[in-house]
Each structure stands twice: as structure tokens, then as C-alpha cells.
Amino acid sequence: MQRLEWNRFSQWHILLDELCECRGYIDNAKLASQLCRRSGKSAQEDFNAAEKNLRNWRLGRHLPLRRNFMILAELLGVSDDPELLRQWNLLYSAARGRDVPDRRQIADEAEIVRQANHRPARRLLWAGAITLTAVLAVTGFRWMASDPYADLPMIGYDARVRMLVGESRLIHGDRGDCDGGNVPGWGYTMPRVPFSTLGTFSDGGLARKMSNFCNAVVPVRAVRFTARKAGVEEVRLLDDFVKIFVTDPAHLVQ
User: Fold this and answer.
1) Are 192 and 162 in contact (CB under 8 A)?
2) Which of 246, 240, 76 is nearest to 172 (CA)?
3) Sorted alphabetically, which keywords does the UniProt record give (predicted)?
């Protein structure tokens, strides 16, 4: 894909529409199908709703909820480009706050984050807090680009996981200390990963998730699940119960 100057976009829905076209989603049908599949939905009404939502999102009539926002980012490969990821998060936060900055503000804020990310790790959290406070005072909106782990994929615990045969996804994460240190290695995490009759669990590498215990986004050792056959089972994964639903793609509504 041709690299674009992402900071020239000042509204999230315009960035979304441009990104969809760049990724080959000229209409919404294919992306709606993938959105349903990623969400574990297969009914015709789910597809119709996804297609309508995409149309509204690309036109700027509505904003997706956080879950759909994260799924869109995954489907469109947003995290593959750090500059795109930064702008994607920034504009979405601005749109939710109903206060969209102009292009000069966006470029300035992106530069602040870029400089902060090159400072020594011990000072990064303090620098991020000071930077965020200053930006809030000037712009009056919330944004996510201050997250020092923003380049890692975001995951979350879901008690019900819906997947298709052949699909592979990060479904949980094992955290270390609340300050981001001592992220577990796979050898530490593996004993709390169960056997599955529907697929295989494996090391998902480093990721990030919101920890209720830490009340912050922290880095984690991710657990990946690859679905091998259709069925339903409940397992205990990292001390949490997870019910996994795996569907055969042949049973999906076309």
C-alpha cells in the first residue's frame, strides 16, 4: 500500500474512508462480512446492520463503539504503521469529545508524542503525563496516543469467544507488574493455559490490555488461540473461565 501523510487528515471518518479505499474496500460488503466474522456473528441481519454501520461511519454520521473501533483497526492493519495508528487514535478521541483539532494542532501533538516516545523509559510515564495535561489544557479533548505501549496490539478478556474454523486470534493476556515491568515469559504463562479439543493455544508475544486491578493499560504476555474444528467448550484460561464457540465457515450466511 502506498504510504500516505496521515497527519493531513483532521477528521476520523475521512481517515477511515480513505483507509478503506486504500485497502481495497471500495464498497462496504466485503468489510461488513469480515466485521461480522471477527465479531462472531453470522446471521443475515447482522451483515445488514454491519453494512449500514460502515456506511454511516464512513460518512461521519455515527461513531463506532470501542469494540468495533478496535476490530476495524485490526481488519484495516492500522497498527502496521505507527504514524497511522497515532492519528487513528487521536482523531477518534477527538470525535468522541466533539472537538476536532485543526491540522496544525494535530501535527504539533503528533510531534509531542513522537519526542516523548524517544525519551528514556524511566522518564516516559512522567513525560507522557505532563504532555497529556498540556494538550488537555489547549485542546480540551481526550486522546489515546499518550499510551507508552501504543505500538502493541490491544486485547481484552472476553468470557465468550466466537471464532471460525481456521481463525487465529489473541484472546487473553498475562500481565506482570502494574508499572509495566516483569512481563511474563511463555514458560511462566503456559502452565495456566489449558488443553482444548477445538484448537490450540500458543504464545501470542507481547500485547497490551486494560487491567482493572492496575487501573491502567499494561503490557502482557498474549495467549493466541487457533480454531481447528467446530464446537463449543468451556476452559479455564489464566484463572478466568472462557467459553469458546467455533463455527464452520460453510455454515455462514453468504
Assistant:
1) no
2) 240
3) Membrane, Transmembrane, Transmembrane helix
